[in-house]
User: Which sequence fits this backbone?
């Protein structure tokens, strides 16, 4: 009856509580938190450690550079579509799509820089916002 108190022996022989992916994700979150918390002030001093070159921040940044590189920015066409969820007044969604296709097609082999179908990018050859609605 003199067993251990507390949780030290409860999980012996059981499966780990976190998967390797979960452990990795938590380490990434902790490293990001360290980088944010130890960001230097205007003089370059770490507000937590009080030193000029914070070793904790350097280690966290090194870890993040190895396991979680900064993802590349989305392509311009994706950014255009995200910003254009609601077209501006006087511009139809079709005109907006054609303009995005024209911009994206300028460097991607679309004929004459036009839309996917190779036609003119604007509605009836008119600038955006002035074509038929």
Assistant:
């Amino acid at each position: 009856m003199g067993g251990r108190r507390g949780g030290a022996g409860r999980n012996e022989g059981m499966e780990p509580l976190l998967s390797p992916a979960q452990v990795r994700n938590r380490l990434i979150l902790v490293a990001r938190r360290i980088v944010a918390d130890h960001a230097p002030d205007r003089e370059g001093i770490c507000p937590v450690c009080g030193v000029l070159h914070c070793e904790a921040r350097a280690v966290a940044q090194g870890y993040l550079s190895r396991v979680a590189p900064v993802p590349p920015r989305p392509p311009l066409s994706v950014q255009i579509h995200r910003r254009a969820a609601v077209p501006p007044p006087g511009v139809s969604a079709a005109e907006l799509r054609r303009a995005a296709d024209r911009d994206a097609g300028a460097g991607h082999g679309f004929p004459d820089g036009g839309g996917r179908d190779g036609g003119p990018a604007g509605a009836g050859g008119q600038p955006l916002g002035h074509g038929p609605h």
Observations:
- Helices lie at 20-37, 55-67, 76-83, 93-105.
- The chain has four helices and no strands.
- Confidence is low (pLDDT under 50) at residues 108-126.
